[in-house]
Amino acid sequence: MCSDHAPAVEIPAVNGTNGVTNGRRQPKLPYQQHHSDERSNTGRFQIIESTLREGEQFANAFYDTETKIKIATALSDFGVEYIELTSPVASPQSRADCEAICKLGLKAKILTHVRCTMEDAKVAVATGVDGVDVVIGTSQILRDHSHHKSMAEITETAIEVVKWIKSQGVEVRFSSEDSFRSNIVDLLSLYQAVDKAGCDRVGVADTVGVATPRQVYKLVRTLRDVVSCDIETHFHNDTMCAVANAHAALEAGATHVDTSVLGIGERNGITPLGGLLARMIVESPDYVKSRYKLAKLKEIEDLVADVVQVNVPFNNPITGYSAFSHKAGIHSKAILAKPETYEILNPSDWGVKRWIHFSSRLTGWNAIKSRAGQLGLIITDEQAKLLTQKIKAMADVRPLAIDDTDSIIRSFCLEHQPEDQPDQ
Ligand SMILES: [Zn+2]
Fold first, then answer.
1. What are the UniProt keywords, alphabetically (predicted)?
2. What are the pLDDT digits (tens) for 150-186?
3. CATH code, domain with 288
4. For the chain, which end, N or C, has fewer CB atoms within 10 Å of the first or last residue's CB respectively?
5. Residue 11 pLDDT more than 70?
């Protein structure tokens, strides 16, 4: 396990740009950055933060005006490029809140999300937003059971709405709903029509969480060749593919990703802000660090968790209870020597701490020696090994709390104190 040992399997270096050596395709190294595809936007994406729209559709969510302002301000300070708000048509208070947030003068652009109708578009533009996101269902099941419109009718209305919003000097995005259960030919013709009408972004939405990364890549890649405007993407997390799908979309040429804090939204939500950034910092560290105040992520997640009355999950990327905890002796030893051995994310980038779990039967003597050092007790390697055996023996019988292990370490050090060392 030592770092100076040669790897058991040698991985040949990739030759040239296409990864082909002597006529055989060579495997790419894991975590290798690959921005060679000019359509990939993994190093230049923008975030449309929808905690105040999609997130309001979360079961527990109720935001009063003050809370909305607090969340919007925190997200703008964090560095997200856009903040999306609930439709002003939803209720009189939703409209008043939308107007109030537009007047704050935040750095992030403010969007609102409405149905693709002239009536909704007019109310949205009147609130003072920077952009309007319009949406309509395009899958057969939604057309049959939701709005009963044909594709020809949808296209006609979409063109009219897009042109009118643009004429008001406001940004506009047109999105289909349930894109991955829609007819691909219908979908591409519709996107092409709104692109020609002057749309700033077209939106691809996996409203039901059915898509896989491969399907996302294929659709977005095809769409990239059909429209010249930006491409926004929206992924639900029903089958836990929301982060992977967002990443695949960016690789295929999408430009914008919808997120919400902790992923809150309809059902079990969408791509979480923290999860997306965890994924993207591995690939594009300079870009992510330069745009977002990562050390504020925990504060924003705690704020939203408190508002919607949930706990941050233990396995949440970055901020979860165990996101940077190391327990097995082999892991702890390597982490103490060089954190990159078992961490691809650096906790200090996010203002959080790593934790070496030393209070179990899986512990190793390096972790115990390090803990003794934290307690101000100096022990030799041989003593640490002996002490670790005692701790493992105890931990085989019952779970040990940190205090229990600290007591064992302290009494061991008292017993093994050199005679000339003064009492502490
Ligand atoms: Zn959604």
1. Amino-acid biosynthesis, Hydrolase, Lysine biosynthesis, Magnesium, Manganese, Metal-binding, Protease, Transferase
2. 889 999 999 999 999 999 999 999 999 888 998 899 9
3. 3.20.20.70
4. N
5. no
Dump pLDDT digits (tens) for 349-397.
Answer: 999 999 888 899 999 999 999 999 989 999 999 999 999 999 999 999 9
If we measure between CA atoms, which residue out of 140, 137, 151, 160 comes closest to residue 186? Answer: 151
168 belongs to a structural domain: yes
User: Which among 306, 341, 360 is the end of a domain?
Assistant: 306
The letter for the amino acid at 160 is: E
CA of 206 to the centre of ligand 1 (A): 8
Tell which residue, 188, 195, 194, has the closest CA to residue 156. 194
Q: 281-310, pLDDT tens digit by residue? A: 999 999 999 999 999 999 999 999 999 999
Q: Which of 250, 281, 306 is the last residue before a domain boundary?
A: 306
Residue-level pLDDT at 330: 86
Residue 27 lies in a domain: no
Mean pLDDT over the full length of the chain: 90
Cα distance between the two ends of the chain: 37
CA 270–ligand 1 middle distance (angstroms): 7
Distance in angstroms (rounded) separating the CA atoms of residues 50 and 66: 17
Residues 113 and 259 in one domain: yes
Say if CB 220 and CB 184 are below 8 A apart.
Answer: no
Q: Helix and strand tally (H, E) in the chain?
A: 15, 12
Cβ contacts of 339-347, under 8 Å, gap ≥ 24: 341/3, 344/31, 344/282, 345/278, 345/281, 345/282, 345/317, 345/318, 347/318, 347/323
User: Ligand 1 centre from 269 Cα, in Å?
Assistant: 7
- Find the 412 Cα to ligand 1 centroid distance in Å: 57
Tokens of 9: 């399997």
Domain shared by 154 and 273, yes or no: yes
Catalytically active residues are: 331
Find the angle CA(221)-CA(226)-CA(227) to the nearest 5 degrees: 100
Q: Report the domain count for the chain.
A: 2
